[in-house]
Amino acid sequence: MERQVKVGVLGAGYWGPKLIRNFQEIPSADMAMVCDLRQDRLDHIRELYPAVRVTTDYKELLGSDVEAVAIATPIRTHHRLAREALLAGKHVLVEKPLTANSEEAEDLVNLAEQRGLTLMVGHTFEYNPAVEYLRNLITSGELGRIYYINATRVNLGIFQPDINVVWDLAPHDVSILTFVLGMLPVNVSARGAAYVRPKIHDVAYLTLHFPNEVMADIRVSWLDPCKIRRITVVGSKKMVVYDDVEPTEKIKIYDKGVDVPPYSDTLEEFHLSYRYGDITTPAIPNVEPLRVECEHFLHCIRTGERPRSDGRDGLEVVRILEAATRSLLNGGMRERVRL
Amino acid sequence: MERQVKVGVLGAGYWGPKLIRNFQEIPSADMAMVCDLRQDRLDHIRELYPAVRVTTDYKELLGSDVEAVAIATPIRTHHRLAREALLAGKHVLVEKPLTANSEEAEDLVNLAEQRGLTLMVGHTFEYNPAVEYLRNLITSGELGRIYYINATRVNLGIFQPDINVVWDLAPHDVSILTFVLGMLPVNVSARGAAYVRPKIHDVAYLTLHFPNEVMADIRVSWLDPCKIRRITVVGSKKMVVYDDVEPTEKIKIYDKGVDVPPYSDTLEEFHLSYRYGDITTPAIPNVEPLRVECEHFLHCIRTGERPRSDGRDGLEVVRILEAATRSLLNGGMRERVRL
Amino acid sequence: MERQVKVGVLGAGYWGPKLIRNFQEIPSADMAMVCDLRQDRLDHIRELYPAVRVTTDYKELLGSDVEAVAIATPIRTHHRLAREALLAGKHVLVEKPLTANSEEAEDLVNLAEQRGLTLMVGHTFEYNPAVEYLRNLITSGELGRIYYINATRVNLGIFQPDINVVWDLAPHDVSILTFVLGMLPVNVSARGAAYVRPKIHDVAYLTLHFPNEVMADIRVSWLDPCKIRRITVVGSKKMVVYDDVEPTEKIKIYDKGVDVPPYSDTLEEFHLSYRYGDITTPAIPNVEPLRVECEHFLHCIRTGERPRSDGRDGLEVVRILEAATRSLLNGGMRERVRL
Amino acid sequence: MERQVKVGVLGAGYWGPKLIRNFQEIPSADMAMVCDLRQDRLDHIRELYPAVRVTTDYKELLGSDVEAVAIATPIRTHHRLAREALLAGKHVLVEKPLTANSEEAEDLVNLAEQRGLTLMVGHTFEYNPAVEYLRNLITSGELGRIYYINATRVNLGIFQPDINVVWDLAPHDVSILTFVLGMLPVNVSARGAAYVRPKIHDVAYLTLHFPNEVMADIRVSWLDPCKIRRITVVGSKKMVVYDDVEPTEKIKIYDKGVDVPPYSDTLEEFHLSYRYGDITTPAIPNVEPLRVECEHFLHCIRTGERPRSDGRDGLEVVRILEAATRSLLNGGMRERVRL
Fold it and tell me: Is there a domain that residue D41 lies in?
């Protein structure tokens, strides 16, 4: 059996307990210590896992012998806590988005590289078997040339206290898109509105312009009657819908398309031919993506491998969110991702 | 019984036969004459309706004793044919969009007013009982303050030869939105791409900014594996989904929302309360909207009433499409609808 | 072009006009004459098809020069009208079910054979491409050994005046089942109830026992809130769902199953292994089954070929309905189909 | 706070851990001891709940100071273990079905009454808020006279080692039906087949005949490609679909029906009028039914109240399953539930 990695978790609010449960269940992890400012959350954790140490002082956790720290605190605290953890020699997994701005993210990336520590960001969907399947469909060429992607992630609630819907929901889609396409967008534009609370956008639309004229559109909302988590990828040969809300048929591959004639004249439109072929729903393994993510974190710590979603990936997503934020504030104009 | 109105139809391609069939079935219409450039289309019409006169010369139709003319020809011909029909003293129903640009639309509106003739545009969805129901939900205040609307109209094909997807599909949603909201957008922006044929957009996203911070987003595409025709209206009290593809449950009213506390402090987020109430699917009468539209056209001719979708409405939709086109070409910047 | 067959239609109520429209549209048919007792129905037909002769006297139709007669009248009249048509030397297509009892059906079968005329029954679903696809899946062995079939055909209404729900809806499923399985049931049992009108069953369940232990269950109801038309075929290798209400994904093939170990011991249950493989939705041609049926009828008349759904098939379905009726009245006991 | 009841659980296979987790989370329960024959299951439980005592000897558990015992072992052991528990003075909750036959069930009911102990059976669905809602719809008269109920509970697997699909899946539907109707069936018939393993039915159809001509049909299968858990209740005024697989819209109430005229003549069929009214999806509280069940068990122990699903209910369900089994073996004939 692999040697156990001693793990501490900072933050036991909504996401922290999921990390704790997974590290608890993974044989090669020793889920040792949890920190949260609220005593009632710590009581709850201790009731579930009596063997786990708890503290309200994160310095106690960073000063302990845990080898790795997972951070699931409010975003504004990510940079400070991750920085201190790295300085204390810990490997770090930070919940998405990595930080509140790109300067902070760059600082963490540099620090981790200097110290030779693993820095990973919790882009959980990159560890989702359906998303991996989608990536393989794209990179294998089965879909042909990729035209565009449309992504929707909406629901009623849960409103976040300190960030808007772009920073809350869009990191999922942005990390999925850059992962499955294997490239980064050059420009981003965004439109949105703040209805429930002043100045905190609860509805937004992002447009990402990738190289090769690939366009991606993302709709995020905390104000929608239905839970929709759906990504459509349209290629020249085939089209795919990935519906994360579907219990079993998450991916549908449509052998559909328009075949364009090689030449072109004034009547070309009448030569367009449509294909309406079979639909295939591949069997996707039923695993918990967060479990895969946690195991990957431990694996990278042990081997020194670069994580699939490393600090640089986290930095790139933050840059995209920043560009989207600039566009939101300037009336929807395109913003370059790299200034 | 009401007196019969003698009707002629210009264009017997895709849409024309539907108009012909409806005027044929309406007792108070005398479906008298059809014009098309292609003899095979006329042969087809004569086979179906032996009593209908056919011609390849539109001047023959305009010179006949028909009282009203319905125009279902390519958009670039709308203005010329409608103009000549009005000059010949005919009442005119033009398929959507009314014309290829706003100057043409204004000309028709002015001409019809000068001559005292009925000018109507075929915004068929305004005669759809589900859309009327949606309008009543909004204007009655049942949904509370309207926040935003999201509309999707996508499918694989049918590519139009001479216009892009914005001018083909978006007129439906633009006319629905202005009808149900009872107001016009001030600014429009649009993004899109042309994948299958050069310079003819086959995928586009429009954002319409209405007064009172109401935002509407429209997604149209000729390149999508699924047929989706869905409009979500989010209000402060209730939310509605209108799904035109659903055979029976076209409208769903969600008694869902977020209640904001009257005061606000640093912890306000914890005071947000969510309502997850009943869902109601009202019974919607099952009528053919085009039948209602044709009967309304005849009614306005007889009574001199202004049509629900009159020339001015057609002009407003064309202005919005023009603004969207300008935005498409300038990188997605907001464009004022009225210059 | 093939020579035209002159066709007459008896009955212009609900189904008759569909036959008339199809024969009207098929180039190799001459839709010549229609008979109905109600003058208003004939007026309607004449308005739609001015060239078609109409009469209230079926003897006039049978005495005319039509070569083929399609019968879409109430079931109790099928035998008499079909008999007279055959005696008058006409080829005959009778709506399903062929007759009100098996004696009548046998009489028609014998008469048609004696006279060398085509006798066909309108088991329309046998001409449905999805049903043909299903049959091929079964007969090719792709599903493995067929275990059982479950069929549901329910809706609210339309109550028939003179027959119960078994004779109204079950003929569809019975003809589909015998067609796709390529065999006839040995025993039938049925249970049901009459809620809305005394003694006329509006809800019923049939169980058909085929050779090789293949079991099929059919649920029919005029009293259900949802329109369901769904057939599940479970084989040892694969399973199929045919959902006729689905607009595009009518057939889904599930690569799912339970693999049984070759030996058996007290713990065999722990050795059962489940397969959860891909789902495939084949593209099914979009044709009107009734059009295919009408063309097949004309083809058989011209060539003398035996129709896919000939009089004998109609007789077998009537025998199964009779056995189901006997079981309905005797408390649900199994009845042999052949006495 | 209520006094804590000390609870022991027999069986830690599939269902036992769910009971253990719930008793662990309920403040008024002291989840004290777990027994299973397999040491690995006990190790697993101890890892999750280090404070819980474990044993492979049920006599140790029955001899301990636990006040209540929950039994989640194979059905053939239910009677012996429940009997010994009652003799040891413990209150008992037995997983459904209560016992393997009605003699055993009667013995337990009598014993519990003699000893004044709570005997409850785990008909979990009776504690499901959607089922309670359905019961209220029926008993309030909102649906009118109840005509019939159709229930489907199918899936691929999980095959049980020692019982057939009737004893595995039908107890859910039988207990739901008797609970929502508030009455017991008089006759039962059943049909089925054993495809995967000899003599163990994996597919079955039950018909239950209740007083007042209410008919209920239940379809259960371990061999179906889709997971369906759906109950349709048809009343004279309204109809309801309860779909347990739906994540949010579990109950849909259809204001649909057929109105029969008060008199009857030969043309009565033309006077039938159909109502196609609104559909309502009530908001159903999102609670775990097993949690409600466990709390109810504890409440009854404390107060001496008779449980909603007491031993007698368990006995009645077993009697219905026995009648179904007799019918399965005699070719589907109706069997009286009470001999």
Answer: yes
Instruction: Verify that D46 and D181 share a domain, yes or no.
Output: no
**Residue C269 reports pLDDT greater than 50:** no
What 3-state DSSP class applies to A79?
A: helix
Quick: pLDDT tens for A88-98.
Answer: 999 999 999 99
Nearest to A113 by CA among A135, A86, A138, A88: A86
Query: Considering only CB atoms, which chain D residues are within 8 Å of B279?
Result: 249, 280-281, 283
Q: Which residue of C has its CA nearest to A256?
A: C283
CATH of the domain at D189: 3.30.360.10
CB-based contact C337:C202 (threshold 8 Å): no
Q: How far apart are CA B68 and CA B8, in angstroms?
A: 6
- To probe the interface with D, which of A46, A48, A281 has the most D CB atoms within 10 Å? A48
- Enumerate chain D positions whose Cβ falls within 8 A of a Cβ in A: 50-51, 227, 245, 247-248
Examine residue C97 and say whether the peptide bond preceding it is cis (omega within 30 degrees of 0).
yes
> With 0-12 CB in 10 A as exposed, 13-18 as middle and 19+ as buried, what is C89?
exposed
Q: What pLDDT, on the 0 to 100 scale, is given for residue A263?
A: 55
Task: Return d(Cα C261, Cα C271) in angstroms, integer.
Answer: 6
Question: Which residues of C are less than 8 Å from A276 in CB distance?
Answer: 283
- Measured CB to CB, residues of chain D less than 8 Å from chain B are 249, 255, 276-283
- Quickly state the pLDDT bin for C82 (edges 50, 70, 90): very high
On whether residue A181 sits in a domain, the answer given is no
Helix, strand, coil percentages (3-state) for chain D, rounded to 5, are 35, 30, 35
Residue C158 has pLDDT above 80, yes or no: no
- The helix/strand/coil state of A193 is strand
Is the same domain home to D48 and D191? no
β-partners of residue B235 are B146
Q: Which of B191, B192, B195 sits opposite A189 (nearest CB)?
A: B191
Indicate whether D335 pLDDT > 80: yes
Lowest mean pLDDT among A81-85, B320-324, C23-27, D265-269: D265-269
Check whether residue C120 and residue C132 sit in a common domain: no
Is residue A330 a contact partner of residue A187, using CB atoms and an 8 Å limit? Answer: no
Q: What would you report as the CA-atom Rg of chain D, rounded to the nearest whole angstrom?
A: 22
Q: Rounded to whole angstroms, how far apart are CA atoms A193 and D215?
A: 54
pLDDT for position A266: 46
Is D160 domain-assigned?
yes
Together in a domain, D216 and D151 = yes
Quick one: tokens of C285?
A: 């041609």
Number of domains composing chain D: 2
- C71: containing domain: 5-124+289-309
ipTM above 0.90, yes or no: yes
Closest CA to A11 of A73, A56, A79: A73
Chains that touch A (3 or more CB pairs under 8 A): B, C, D
Which of these ranges, A124-138, A263-277, B234-248, has the smallest mean pLDDT?
A: A263-277
List, for residues D14-68, the tens digit of each pLDDT value: 899 999 999 999 999 999 999 999 999 999 999 888 889 999 999 999 999 999 9
Residues of chain C that touch chain B, judged by Cβ-Cβ distance less than 8 Å: 50-51, 227, 245, 247-248
Tokens representing residue D2 in the block: 């209520």
Which of A249, A276, A277 is closest, CB to CB, to C279?
A249
Residue A310: DSSP 8-state: B
Mean pLDDT of the C162-172 span: 94
Chain D residues closer than 8 Å to B283 by CB: 255, 276-279
pLDDT tens digits, D204-260: 999 999 999 999 999 999 999 999 999 999 999 999 999 999 988 999 999 999 887
| pTM exceeds 0.90, yes or no | yes
Structure tokens at A114: 């200097």
Which CATH number does the domain housing residue A61 bear? 3.40.50.720
